[in-house]
C-alpha cells in the first residue's frame, strides 16, 4: 500500500485535505487462485476551525470505486462471503472544546 496526502490551511480557519491510497493486487480466496486488481481510493475533507469549535465535511471513496477484497465459498452448507471496498460516504464532523 502507498498513500499520499496534500492539504492546505489558509490560516483563517479554512482547511482542506485530499488523500489518495493505492492498494496492490491481492488474493481473494484462501487457496491463492484468484487475485484482485490493484486499485486507488481517494478521500477529501474540507473544514472551518475557530478557537473552541471545528466543523468538517468529508467524502470517503470520492469516485465510488467498486472492488472485491475477499471472496470465500463454503462447501457445506453452500454459501459465499464477499467483502467489498466501502461505498462512497458523505458526512460531517463537529467538535466543541470545553
Summarize the structure.
The protein is an all-beta fold. The protein has one domain (2-96).
Summarize the topology.
Blueprint: E1 2-9, E2 14-23, E3 26-27, E4 35-36, E5 39-49, E6 53-60, E7 68-74, E8 79-84, E9 89-96
Antiparallel strand pairs: 1-2, 2-5, 3-4, 5-6, 6-9, 7-8
Q: How would you describe the overall organization of this protein?
A:
It is a single chain. The chain is mainly β and 98 residues long. The protein is built from no helices and nine strands. The strands form three sheets. A five-stranded antiparallel sheet has the order 1-2-5-6-9, with no helix packed on it. Strands 3-4 form a two-stranded antiparallel ribbon.
Continuous helix count: 0
Order of helices and strands: EEEEEEEEE
Spatial shape: elongated
Mean pLDDT: 89
The SS-based structural class is mainly beta
Number of domains: 1
Q: What does the radius of gyration come to?
A: 19 Å
Percent of sequence in beta strands:
over 45%
The percentage helix is under 10%
Report the span from N to C terminus: 38 Å
The largest sheet, given as strand count, sense and whether it forms a barrel, is: 5 strands, antiparallel
The largest sheet has its strands arranged as: 1-2-5-6-9
- The total beta strand count reads 9
Low-confidence stretches: none
